[in-house]
């Protein structure tokens, strides 16, 4: 099984995103990139930041209770730790972060990258039977679970659905929701209809919620 320090190569492709509220769909070309096989764990987050923000305690549990701002700060800190160029230029509050697309450091996936990776070449709502691939409301016993406990998708990515929602880089709908950012994947307490590859959720970049975490990506910089 992959470790949290390995990154998985995600091939280039095209994905069609859909917003149920507006009934708008749009196609996005996704260049090849790398994605972590698991959400960031509490142990990894503490090792990089010295902080343990999660409500539940466990080294191999996904870190939760982290804001979008916390997530991009972690990405920069991990990049510096590994001698890479940070992907984000941060202002005083991090809300106005700018992404340096030429940087080789860690970052959050875009929501197109996230959905493309989640689907792993499949076209249905999920990449496998839900009980086999995800911790969610019906099988999660009302709690978060260690990463990697369910079957991965065809590209070796675990917990893309269920366990924790994952922050993405993108603004959700700036004309309506301002600075709110996209969440993907569904969480440990959600009903089955939230644990689908296409489902979008939103949250303010400063909010910390007990079913929201993140995983890191890296661009393939030429």
Q: What report would you give on this structure?
A:
The structure is a single chain. This protein has 5 helices and 12 strands. It is α+β, with helices and mostly antiparallel strands and 222 residues long. The strands form 4 sheets. The protein has a 4-stranded antiparallel β-sheet with strand order 1-4-12-7. A 4-stranded mixed β-sheet has the order 10-9-8-11, covered by helices on one side. It is globular and about 40 Å long. 44% of the residues are buried. The mean pLDDT is 94.
Layout of helices and strands:
Elements: E1 8-10, E2 13-19, E3 24-30, E4 33-35, H1 42-49, H2 68-81, E5 88-89, E6 98-99, E7 106-107, H3 111-119, H4 130-133, E8 165-171, H5 174-177, E9 181-184, E10 200-203, E11 212-213, E12 217-219
Parallel strand pairs: 8-11
Antiparallel strand pairs: 1-4, 2-3, 4-12, 5-6, 7-12, 8-9, 9-10
Radius of gyration: 16 Å
Helix count, DSSP H or I runs of 4 or more residues: 5
Shape verdict? globular
The oligomeric state of the chains shown is single chain
- Return residue spans where pLDDT drops below 50 for at least 5 consecutive residues: none
Can you summarize the main beta sheet? 4 strands, antiparallel
| Helix content range | 10-25%
- In round numbers, the mean pLDDT is 94
